[in-house]
Amino acid sequence: MLNGNSGATDFEAVFTDRRASLPGADLAWLTELRESGINQFRRQGLPTPRTEAWKYTNLRPLQKVAFAAAPDAAAARPAGLDKAPSLLPSGEHVRRLVLTEGRFDPALSSIGDLPPGVTLEPLAQAIRRDPGGLQSYLGRIAHPVGQPMLALNTALMEDGVVLRVGRGAVLSEPVEVLHLGGLSDRAVAYHPRLLVLLEADSRAVLVENFVGLGDASYFANAVTEIRVAEGARLDHIKVQAEGAAATHLASCHVWLDRQATFIGFSLALGAQLSRNEVHVRLEGEGARCRVNGAYLMRGKQHCDNTTLIEHLKPETSCREVFKGVLDDQSRGVFQGRIMVHRGADKTDGHQLSKALLLSDRAEIDAKPELEIYADDVKCSHGATVGDIDEQALFYLRARGIPEARARSLLIQAFLDEALDEVGIPALHEALLSRVADWLGTG
Question: Which residues form the domain of 412?
Answer without folding.
Answer: 390-442
